[in-house]
Amino acid sequence: MFDRAVLRDKKFLSWAILVFIGGFLIGLPIDGAFLFQKLTSSITAQTLPKEWREGQTGLINPLLGVNYPDNSAFTELVPLQSAVQTVINNAIDNHVLIRGSVYFRDMSDSHWIGVNETETYSPASLIKIPMMVSYFKVAESNPNILNKLLQYTGPNQNVSVYFKPADNMVSGQYYSVSDLIRRMIVYSDNNAILMLFNNMDKASLDAIFSDLSITVPKDPNQPGDYITPGNFSRFFRTLYNATYLNEAYSQKALELLSEADFKQGLVAGVPGNITVAHKFGETPDVDATGKTISYELHDCGIIYAPNHPYILCVMTSGQSYDSIAGAIKDISAAVYSAVKNNYK
Predict the structure, then answer these.
(1) Tens digits of residue pLDDT in 216-266
(2) Residue 307's CB: how many other CB atoms inside 10 A?
């Protein structure tokens, strides 16, 4: 999962070393000091990436991702960053958003930009992605877990949500774990996630957050703001690169995410023929008395733009779910337009 820029540096280093050694052996007049200067300037000309890994197990420590901690060198993305900032500023000025944060990452070269990307939010229903990943991780060694039947007996956990599931579960009916995972992702069904959470090894869920260096929630519905758009994007990066789940389950997870029936955000901002594997989350912000004072709405996913798929994670708060969804749509449209125009 090395970024292409990193691989280019490695290829240059290997080529330069071979030339230096070859020149020494056949007597070519190569200036070693000059070549060393070229090598070091090539390395320091861009920000060196940092790796994060799953953790030492025996003699291996699997690579999960590579991060560029500084994005100041990605000048080609400045217009995109400016466009996103403009959309957010306009939405705030028009009292649509109270705050908004965006993380963008080009999956072809790992270059990224952010707008208010270090602000934290409650993940809300985004937590359903690590729940899915935890079950698929177990299924790699125990596929029968997906066939286990669980009975839904209520109560209905979707009563208070604004964007309700298109297909309701029936009290008393049995559902397979596989079906519950699909309902949890495609319909964002809170009944499904609660059943899955109550019938899983909680350590497997904790392990995912720990492995990706993300704050571990105590409960899938834990209140409070603790996750950033950049951090949450790691789930999509590991699925896209198949570095945490194997290829089969990474593919299955992204296929389910591409079927998500929430179309008002990221999906609404791109042409209808573009695949978007994504998940949304909603939650009210309440004060100390329990009164709702605002709403959080997020939409994060992979937009499969031709030749340049990218991750876009938008986290927001505002006064109305519908108006916030419109702002997310505008952000998505601005990003898609910038990507399309930049890579003609």
Answers:
(1) 655 555 557 789 999 999 999 999 999 999 999 999 999 999 999 999 999
(2) 8
Q: Is residue 146 part of a domain?
A: yes
Residues 108 and 31 in one domain: no
Owning domain of residue 187 = 75-342
Q: Does 140 lie in the same domain as 10?
A: no
Question: Which residues make Cβ contacts (< 8 Å) with residue 137, sequence separation at least 6?
Answer: 204, 208, 244, 245, 249
Residue 53 falls inside a structural domain: no
CATH of the domain at 284: 3.40.710.10
226, part of any domain: yes
The pLDDT tens digits for 263-322 are 999 999 999 999 999 999 999 998 888 899 999 999 999 999 998 899 999 999 999 999
Task: Say if 22 falls within a structural domain.
Answer: yes
CA–CA gap between residue 292 and residue 241 (Å, rounded):
39
Domain shared by 33 and 87, yes or no: no
| Total count of domains within the chain | 2
Task: Enter the pTM of the model.
Answer: 0.81
Beta bridge partners of 51: 66
